[in-house]
């Protein structure tokens, strides 16, 4: 499976909404990423044009903020917490289990674009440490077994859209 094709009409529509908007760069990048799952490199030039700023500035912002990605991500993005509260409750074994199950390292996406693996400094769910997220869903009080069950649920829904 390939990442979603970039619908240039849709992309230009989103960019058009922010044309000449002062301080529009971050919200525009967020809107683009929300739609496509990442900031397609081909969107850099038209964004710069619409906001009247150099492409290097757009590129710089996308590269600087960890929340933006220039590469397509998987349908399911797993974010495993590497914060202190999770670490002391065995976060390391959670991360190892995820890596082993998905055969991915941090920052990688599976070849079929089903899964991406990331780590974050804190998910804000320390009270249920160790924790991880799959897209916007939280999973807490994890164990290696639970991790396998959670990932298994998403593997079963492959192809469901
Ligand atoms: S340290 Fe893991 S959620 Fe806060």
Automatic annotation (TrEMBL):
Cofactor(s) it depends on: [2Fe-2S] cluster
UniProt xrefs under InterPro entries: NADP_DH_HndA-like (IPR028431), NuoE-like (IPR002023), NuoE_dom (IPR042128), NuoE_N (IPR041921), Thioredoxin-like_sf (IPR036249)
Details of cofactor binding: Binds 1 [2Fe-2S] cluster.
Keyword Zinc-finger included in the entry's annotation: no
Cited Pfam families: 2Fe-2S_thioredx
Molecular function via GO: 2 iron, 2 sulfur cluster binding; metal ion binding; oxidoreductase activity
Keywords, comma-separated and alphabetical: 2Fe-2S, Iron, Iron-sulfur, Metal-binding
Residues bound to [2Fe-2S] cluster: 81, 86, 122, 126
Sequence similarity: Belongs to the complex I 24 kDa subunit family.
Name listed for the protein in its UniProt record: NADH-quinone oxidoreductase, E subunit-like protein (NuoE)
């Amino acid at each position: 499976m390939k990442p979603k094709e970039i619908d240039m009409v849709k992309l230009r529509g989103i960019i058009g909404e922010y044309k000449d908007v002062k301080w529009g760069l971050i919200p525009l990048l967020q809107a683009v990423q929300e739609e496509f799952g990442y900031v397609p490199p081909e969107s850099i030039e038209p964004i710069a044009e619409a906001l009247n700023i150099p492409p290097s500035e757009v590129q710089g912002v996308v590269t600087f903020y960890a929340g933006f990605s220039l590469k397509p991500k998987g349908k399911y993005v797993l974010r495993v917490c590497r914060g202190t509260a999770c670490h002391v409750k065995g976060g390391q074994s959670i991360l190892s289990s995820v890596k082993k199950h998905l055969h991915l390292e941090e920052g990688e996406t599976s070849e079929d674009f089903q899964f991406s693996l990331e780590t974050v400094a804190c998910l804000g769910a320390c009270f249920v440490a160790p924790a991880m997220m799959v897209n916007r869903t939280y999973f807490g009080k994890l164990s290696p077994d639970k991790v396998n069950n959670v990932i298994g649920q998403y593997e079963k829904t492959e192809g469901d859209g």
